């Protein structure tokens, strides 16, 4: 088996937890500020018009986006549906309750004027009001919240409830920083982003569970050793596997981000960030939080005995 890092490494990860904790706190704080003040919600969450169009001849999806952007529309999202040979697309643009019908007419007119030679047919028009968009936004965050709760319960039952806070803090850390990057880069937060974040949650918790499983094995074999020693041994033993898995996933996500087209670029940007941040948090967020909670729980138990 190929090993980038030898399995008998003895890096003292626990000694670095104090420094990485400061870095993580700063990143999360800055990200929360960006989410509250700068997060750019897409059409699905803010309201707008959704138009299904069909061309008689082949049209480049990027040309459709550029045409709408040049016409001055905001929050543009376009994607192909069905087979590529059918030349059918769904176009979304932002708007409010006062001008949604007007915007719909303007989009149709702009596309017909720019692609008259390709034969444009407007097949369906849907309007998403701001209230419906706000409800959808709440549902998206609720989906992530329920995922975190389910993971916390699973880890508590699978290992021990002292491990659950570390996993949840790590996932919160990952999701918050990704949304922070989206906020400061002015990238739209859409349903695709929610799907990507749920995928990141699944990937990150898988990495964390592998470390936890090795920690538990060491605890069962060497019960007299402190948890910090078990964590160091577990992280060192799984380090090669973690790096190889992360690099493989990262390679695919970067390729898809670079060459997959605009329709899936934001999705794979979130996945790419999630792989990097999730690998970091499995070692430098989940593990120290578990260590911290273990110390607190032992302090609560030992206090009455000392008294």
Automatic annotation (TrEMBL):
Keywords, alphabetical: Cell membrane, Membrane, Protein transport, Translocation, Transmembrane, Transmembrane helix, Transport
HAMAP family found in the cross-reference section: SecF_B (MF_01464_B)
Membrane topology value: Multi-pass membrane protein
Single GO molecular function: protein-transporting ATPase activity
NCBIfam families: 2A0604s01 (TIGR00916), transloc_SecF (TIGR00966)
Function: Part of the Sec protein translocase complex. Interacts with the SecYEG preprotein conducting channel. SecDF uses the proton motive force (PMF) to complete protein translocation after the ATP-dependent function of SecA.
Chain ranges of the Protein export membrane protein SecD/SecF C-terminal domain: 116-293
Name of the gene encoding the protein in the UniProt record: secF
Protein name, UniProt field: Protein-export membrane protein SecF
PANTHER family, per database record: PROTEIN TRANSLOCASE SUBUNIT SECF, PROTEIN-EXPORT MEMBRANE PROTEIN SEC
Localization terms from the record: Cell membrane
GO biological process assignments: intracellular protein transmembrane transport; protein targeting; protein transport by the Sec complex
Transmembrane segments: 20-41, 138-157, 163-182, 189-206, 242-260, 267-293
Entry keyword Membrane: yes
Pfam (any one): SecD_SecF_C
Oligomer and partners: Forms a complex with SecD. Part of the essential Sec protein translocation apparatus which comprises SecA, SecYEG and auxiliary proteins SecDF. Other proteins may also be involved.
The organism's taxonomic lineage, starting at the top: Bacteria, Pseudomonadati, Bdellovibrionota, Bacteriovoracia, Bacteriovoracales
Main subcellular location of this protein, as a coarse class: membrane
GO cellular component terms, A-Z: plasma membrane
Protein family according to the UniProt entry: Belongs to the SecD/SecF family. SecF subfamily.
Record-linked InterPro entries: SecD/SecF_arch_bac, SecD/SecF_bac, SecD/SecF_CS, SecD_SecF_C, SecD_SecF_C_bact, SecF_bac
Organism (species): Halobacteriovorax marinus
Keyword Transcription regulation: no
